[in-house]
Amino acid sequence: MSYQIPKFRHPQLPVNDLGYTKADYEGSISTLCAGCGHDSIAGSIVKACHELSIEPHKIAKLSGIGCSSKSPTYFLGKSHGFNSVHGRMPSVVTGAAMANRNLTYLGVSGDGDTASIGMGQFAHVARRNLNMVYIVMNNGCYGLTKGQDSATADEGSVSKKGDANIYSAIDLCATALQMGATFVARGFSGDKEQLVPLIKAAVSHRGFALIDVVSPCVTFNNNPGSTKSYEFVRDHAEATGTVDFVPMRKEITTDYMPGFSHEVTMHDGSSIHLYKMDENLDPFDRTSALISMEKHRASGDILTGLIYMDKDSRDLHDVMETSRRPLNTLAEEDLCPGNQMLKNINASLR
Amino acid sequence: MKPTDIKDPEYFHKVVDCQHACPAHTPVPEYIRLIAAERYTDAYMINWQSNVFPGILGRTCDRPCEPACRRGRLDADEEPVAICRLKRVAADKKDDISERLPSIPKKKNGKRIALVGAGPASLTVARDLAPLGYIIDIYDNQFAGGGMMRSQIPSFRLPIDVLDEEVNYILDMGINATFDIEVDSLREVLDKGYDAVFIGTGAPRGKGLNLPGLEDAAGHVHLGIDWLSSVAFEHTEKIEPRVLVLGGGNTAMDCCRTSKRLGGDDVRVVVRSPFEDMKASPWEKEDAMHEGIPIYNNHVPKELVVEDGKLKGMHFEKVEAQYDESGKRSLVPTDEPLVFMEADTVLMAIGQENSFPWIERDLGIEFDKWDMPVVNDQTFQSTNQKIFFGGDAAFGPENVITAVAHGHQAAVSIDLYCRGESVADRPAPGVTLASQKMGVHEWSYDNSVEIDKRYVVPLAPLKETLADRKIEVELGFDATTGYKEAERCLNCDIQTVFEEVRCIECDACVDICPTDCISFIANQEEEHLRVALTAPASNLAQDLYVSEELPTKRVMVKDENVCLHCGLCAERCPTSAWDMQKFLYNVSKAGQL
Ligand SMILES: Cc1cc2nc3c(=O)[nH]c(=O)nc-3n(C[C@H](O)[C@H](O)[C@H](O)COP(=O)(O)OP(=O)(O)OC[C@H]3O[C@@H](n4cnc5c(N)ncnc54)[C@H](O)[C@@H]3O)c2cc1C
Ligand SMILES: Cc1ncc(C[n+]2csc(CCOP(=O)(O)OP(=O)(O)O)c2C)c(N)n1
Ligand code: SF4
Ligand code: SF4
Ligand code: SF4
Ligand code: SF4
Ligand SMILES: [Mg+2]
Fold first, then answer.
1. pLDDT tens digit string along B88-120?
2. CATH, residue B133
3. CB–CB of A10 and B515 under 8 A?
4. Which domains are assigned to chain A?
5. I want to staple B545 with a disulfide (CB 3.0 to 4.6 A). Which of A98, A148, B438, B558 is the partner?
6. Structure pTM?
């Protein structure tokens, strides 16, 4: 058993704008089960952050409890991390984000962590449109505690134990949409080509960005009869379209069929290209997104890709008109502006 | 691309870079692991089977394996594993091996073979044929066996007792060796009724330069290889103080270092080419410079300056290397005044050549326009079916390990020929592929990758070694350093073997692979694949391992180039679609069919 990843990397690894290779965004060797989908998502996060050229120390990764919530140890080893309490990641991110708006916040959670014990927190952080990326590694079970059905397990889905789930499933994308999330996407751990640009777009989005990533639990929920197995997801995934993330300075090189393609400029100046496969979905319209999701649910397909995005999103800092500077950079004269200022304020209230 | 045929032994053989590059295809990682396990005798025997002279080669091999070693490709500041010097560790630390040597049948098979020359090529033929019952007669014009290993390689690089030990393992196999005999007619040898004759007489003639002044200076100008053998055979014990050595190859390096030990105090090497283009191995140049011998490059010898019948020195013309578009070099004079260097003795070490004045030209052996025998490079047979060539005699000067490799193949041919079989039907290599899995994530080899830099072999104090030409310069690794150096080996023979039907395409192997070797991708032509993989596969000398099509219509493609053989792909694979399997490749020897 290996406890360390060898030091050597491919000698021709590409470097990003900061001069870093992908290796600078990796973490320690994973202790998850071999073949766990969560590891692939970790790989996609590494790739996305490297390609976005974010300085590792400008990222904070926060999580709850579960195999999924353990996974931040296995990526972004040079970033800030906070492994919090079961289901409570959103409140910790809220506090951190309010204190320092200059970091990229990456919340990592599981379906148990989010849809059961953390459901209340999840609803409220979406509703507040906190500027963060919220990744759910969704395997339809509580992997860490040996595979009990979670609230996202589909009705009738069979886990390794052999019993079909009798409850109806919570669809986290639909829930987030209804709670007011401004960016909603679904991915599959086994499809990096789709997932990496989704993560990049989510990072560039200002506001609450949910990516619900179906991520098979090879140990407890990858058996025939499970709707969260590699095979089932491959057979039933249907993409809304392809998303191409275009960094701010790069030219657009791909040709898109007119009529089906959208170009969206993000807050940070980068843009995303959306090439639609589903003509009936308008990903900038909440109602259209909800209808499309409901249709796919009814037909037993898993809708993946970018489902909804509010181009004019205003995040929690915008609506609360908070300080533009991180609190830890405020000096005494900012916080105690002096007697005259106090007088002015009091006068304005008279 | 077509799926890779891993049943073809050459596929995985090529992945074991060192073994593939070794002319004798010694199973390098296998013996390195045995050294790490302190099983020195076992490590020695693996070498002995394959390269016959582990103690000699562990000190003197030209080591074509090392530039090929994967370790040197991993990083700009990574150096190859010290494969050669680890061989010496096995030789230095082994126990008595007499019990392990092949037994020689008392009853012979009735076939008589003559070997002309007793260098490494002939000795290898003898080693392979004697255990099969052949009667072997060796003829050599030196007083003892070993060829140039005895006459040319100086004792400070190769002590006599090491040479004697390994030469005697062979001569003691009941070989009839006749020394101090010059063979001056091949016809006479054939007339003795041999079933086959092997010619391993090397490339014994030194080249000289016909410079103005040569006649007058004659007594003070020597051919390098003749001078070295007269030192080795103790006919020469001294040299005058100021020595110029002409030439940039290994012979020049041995000449200058030997001169330094025999009284040469201003010894210089003067070479026509730029320093980087010199033929000598980098370590030979380093060793010479370490002993305080300057190397003057870009100096073309012009004349020997003789005054009053006495050699005063030499004139050289300074040149500069210019390269045309095709990279062809020409040495263009810089038009500076000639450079004069003082000298009492000049050693010309500019090359050797073959010479076969003793082979009659009507024996059915065809000679080409360079007066070299026409020899098949697989079977080593000449155009006279009975007569085989090998070592430096076959295709010109090479090195000991090449001579050994030739000897093995010639022995295979001689055995086939004497049994009336076609020499063209070469026996396939002996190959095994065996899983190294011991438990869920346990391997029977040490799969961790050490980060140690290459260890340097300690040297004896310069003062001592310069005072006595018989004191060995290199001390060899001790057991601890040998272990650490052995641990640097990546075990390139432990192959990553992929089984498509097990793969669920979970990507775990792709994610974990430290060097991004693995991709799952739509199949395409090789040139397109090479740029489309997870990381570019730009080393065209290394193959891509391509699977059959997988359920998602993609294929698995693995770039073998910088695989660390760390086994992490197999550890992280939930279905054991990857397995680590030890690939042993043994060149078949005579009698192994
Ligand atoms: C100075 C020098 C240093 C070298 N150092 C190295 C080194 O460090 N490492 C390395 O790998 N290689 C080295 N080489 C090369 C290496 O020695 C040869 O490539 C190798 O020995 C060739 O082996 P062989 O069996 O073909 O012939 P040889 O070793 O040349 O043996 C041929 C034998 O045949 C004898 N012979 C020739 N003609 C006749 C005849 N007519 N009758 C009877 N006997 C005859 C010769 O005297 C000799 O004993 C060196 C060579 C030189 C010149
Ligand atoms: C407050 C609290 N309640 C219950 C648990 C037990 N527990 C640990 S992980 C987990 C579920 C994890 O499921 P999920 O978030 O889907 O993660 P997965 O392991 O499937 O990735 C539970 C219930 C806990 N650690 N803390
Ligand atoms: S139990 Fe399931 S979720 Fe947890 S590490 Fe193993 S495969 Fe992944
Ligand atoms: S690392 Fe070891 S096995 Fe690989 S090429 Fe080098 S010596 Fe040979
Ligand atoms: S053994 Fe496997 S994981 Fe290790 S470098 Fe080679 S392909 Fe990559
Ligand atoms: S880890 Fe195994 S099952 Fe997964 S993609 Fe690699 S080979 Fe296939
Ligand atoms: Mg889960």
1. 999 999 999 999 999 999 999 999 999 999 999
2. 3.50.50.60
3. yes
4. 22-329 (3.40.50.970)
5. B558
6. 0.92
